[in-house]
Design a protein that fits this description.
alpha+beta; single chain; 2 helices; PH-domain like; 17% helix
């Protein structure tokens, strides 16, 4: 299990997120930068397993409005559980998202 997958699994466990219809589903506040401005969107989040990796899916209209991806895979991004209800998603040295369970 890679580090990102371990971090995401710990985030799920610590927040007692439960499976619903085969997916882990929860409501979250998502923070990200766009045009050097901090943006915040509330969305339903889904976590699923795809082959040997895990992926976080943002259910709302995130991409069309903010030009952000819908899916973030543990094989492509670094997930860092910051404790409590906070999960950071990094791409190299760049913080891409902060996800906060509501």
């Amino acid at each position: 299990m890679n580090k990102s997958k371990r971090q995401l699994t710990k985030f799920i466990s610590e927040n007692k997120l439960k499976k619903r219809d085969g997916l882990i589903v929860f409501d979250a506040a998502i923070y990200f930068a766009k045009d050097q401005q901090l943006q915040q969107v509330d969305s339903e989040m889904q976590v699923t397993t795809i082959s040997t990796q895990m992926a976080v899916y943002i259910a709302e209209f995130f991409r069309s409005e903010y030009l952000q991806k819908h899916v973030y895979k543990t094989s492509e991004y670094d997930f860092v559980f910051a404790g409590g209800n906070v999960l950071h998603v990094w791409l190299g040295p760049t913080l891409v998202l902060t996800i906060i369970v509501k």
